[in-house]
Amino acid sequence: MKKINSEEIERQVITVLLHEPQLLDTVNINTEWFVDHNYRSVVEAINELDTEHYSLLNIWGKASYLNPQFGLNYDDLSSLNRLFVTGHTLPQIVSELRKQALTRKVKEAASEYQRLPVSDNAEALYESLNNLINTEDTTADGSLDDAMNQLDYRLNHQVEKGIKTFDLLDDIVGGGLYGSMLFTIGARPSVGKTAFSVNLAYEALQQDSKLEVDYFTLEMGKAEMLNRFISRHTGIMSQSLRDPASSLSDIQKSVVRSAIKWLKDHKLNVYDTTPMLDQIVQTIKKNAAKCKTNKYLAIVDYIGLISVQGIDEQRPKLEKVTRELKMLTNDLHIPIVALAQLSRGIESRNNKTPLLSDLRDSGSIEQDSNVVAFLHKPYANNVSAEQLLIQKNREGDLGKIDFYFDGSEMLFKEIKQK
What we know:
alpha/beta
């Protein structure tokens, strides 16, 4: 973490806790670490409240009751609430908060020893220095304290398992697309991997109106992607949306307008001019930091087209891309769906079922991904049948899911076995 002043660190802690007060049970915070007495009162208020009473109004009321000099009004808390930093960063921020508090203690003890160099003040200075040194040593010492606190919290509290999409897919991956997941979907050209990713995003948005989806398209423009989402929502052929004035009836136009309103009411962002890896990384960091846990999803279509500054060869470029995307999932505790191209070698085999070795140009895709799935057509005589084959799954089972696919309507529909 880059050096941030005490006021900013304290504000970040409060913004996280105002959004997700329950996270206070997953970290150790001493209110004496706060310089700002108002922020200190907010933490004390959350600590006093029962889980079922967590709300912005109750936190403000309790803080005002506990501290007659509480200087923040309800609008102040509302403004802080809008400055949200992703909850996954809380342990790191609290660690910095503690470090800054201990640094102040060292300065105070040093000043007191300079004023009066007696043994008691020397001992106090030594103790404060030792506490600070121990904090520096344990910043990256592999401690499991925060992880154990979070697990202990989950023993008695239900938490969202992940972002919901398709029912059968959610079951296989353990409840949904979860934080720290890099989910790679590979396919040969013209199989429908872009259409599948549109359906994945659509299903996620349909199930959670507060979810934010960033879709990075490196093959199509915004208008074409919009047509695909409109087609998925309405069932109107995407080709008809290229010239809607002449190809659509009045009723169909009304349906399209309704679909446009639906999209405006949801948080879908499409980026068609960010081909560089650095641009994609910065956009994800910026947008994910504003979202709560399980409220952000990024989709990249597709990783073979991403440019990396200073690297031209495809294999090292892909290795850099998958490593950066995987690090993002861990650092921000978000899922990222990455589409990938399969090698041509699959076409020369009698058995055209995709294998992990078919991932094109790089073994790092398999290595860095939590889940690897392949989209393919299992039946040569049935163009509407598609199958998602889960070939790697760190957190769950392998398996396959059959889909009905209508390319004209951008529709993927799970076929559930009776």
